[in-house]
Write a structure and sequence with these properties.
The chain is of the alpha+beta class. The protein has four helices and ten strands, in the order E-H-E-E-E-E-H-E-E-E-H-E-E-H. The chain has a single domain, classed as Aldehyde Oxidoreductase, domain 3, CATH 3.90.1170.40. Strand 3 and strand 4 form a beta hairpin. Helix 3 packs across helix 4. It is globular.
């Protein structure tokens, strides 16, 4: 399992290629999700997203969430790359990839982990654009999706 919280840009394609290179013969499925900084949100233009975190604590909590998800699904490997700092519109924010013997486990693990990252990871988000800046909080829909997976411990 690889967990990376990065203060710089990353290449999802390169990270996925490296992740798959180590997959082994038992891997029958790869599921991935890449989240990008949108240029519009809530009807307003967005020029950048700033993600703040507590170094050390954030990585440990993301690892705890990833291990909990991996423990509930029959995964061969799991990858999480999450960017922090200032992210211009159009650039990748997060990559989650899961390898498993079968597709259902890989799909479920990626979806579940993204729901936990959206609501539980100690990362604070602020969008900025021509109209100003605003803090972004998980929505009720985000919380409902997360609750459908149960607790992470």
């Amino acid at each position: 399992m690889r967990i990376a919280v990065l203060p710089h840009a990353f290449s999802p394609e390169a990270d996925i290629a490296r992740f798959c290179h180590r997959r082994g013969a038992d891997a029958g499925a790869l599921a991935t999700f890449v989240g990008y900084c949108r240029a519009q949100s809530g009807g307003a233009d967005v020029t950048q997203l700033e993600l703040q975190h507590y170094p050390g604590f954030t990585e440990a909590e993301v690892r705890r969430l990833a291990e909990a998800v991996a423990g509930r699904h029959d995964l061969i490997d799991l990858l999480v790359v999450h960017r922090v700092g200032v992210i211009p519109a159009g650039e990748p924010i997060v990559l989650v990839a899961a390898l498993s013997a079968h597709r259902a486990a890989a799909f479920k693990a990626v979806e579940e982990l993204m729901d936990y990252l959206k609501t539980d990871a100690p990362i604070w988000k602020r969008e900025s654009g021509p109209a100003g800046a605003r803090w972004i909080e998980p929505t009720e829909r985000d919380r409902a999706r997360r609750a459908s997976h149960g607790e992470t411990e």
